[in-house]
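Tutorial handout. Part one gives the primary structure; part two gives the three-dimensional structure as tokens.
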Amino acid sequence: MKFTLLGTGTSTGVPSIGCECETCTSDDPRDKRLRVSVLVEHGGQTVLIDTSSDFRQQALRVGLRHLDAVLVTHCHADHIFGLDDIRPLNFRHGALGVYANERAWVDIRRIFKYIFEPSHFGGGLPQVVAHTVTHGAAFCLGPDFQVTPIEVIHGRLPVMAYRLNDFAYATDLSEIPPASLDMLRGLDALVLDCLRLRPHPTHLWLERSLDYVRELRPRRAYFTHIAHDIKHARDAALLPGGVEWGYDGLEINDE
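Part two.
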């Protein structure tokens, strides 16, 4: 299995518009963060987690030619507003399975009403095959490719993390309920929310992210959804062995 971090930034992206802080003016490419999403490849299948608002740019940057499915964590703008950009993939390969929980589907159908209730002729529409996921109900996307949706809490909003075999992706969260913690044990690699150094009401911050890493004990952990408070090279020293700041383009492979 291979994870490619397509974007590792917070909802504003980094650099942030109009900001002249040390990170936003950095020339380190690891400090340039598009909105969060990840590409997962395994057993001939290619799966995207979240169609971020930067999805078109991300897809072009990695030379994406095909997708087999999209997994949605939740329906905030930075995670879903790139959905329309699946259309070129539809033109070549047909409708695309999109997996989201019931709450997210309510918002997706509202935001993208034109997809589900077409009211005009002309112009391409994304072709979506809707699948509803529920906490703990595992499904397979191919031989030896099991996906387990896991509910976590983003402020007061239940959102989905996903375990894919022994890899897991959990972004935009402030709490992992005890039953969900048990579903995230025994991981080879965990990509986990870590917004900034200081506490935040709806996201994990460094201390809390490290607490969860110590609790879950994945073999490797990578932090994502990173704000401009974090400067990659400077703040690498804050992390223990086996934990790294993610960055756009980072590839995480089976070892």
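Part three, for discussion. DSSP finds eight helices and 14 strands in the chain. The chain has one domain: 2-245.
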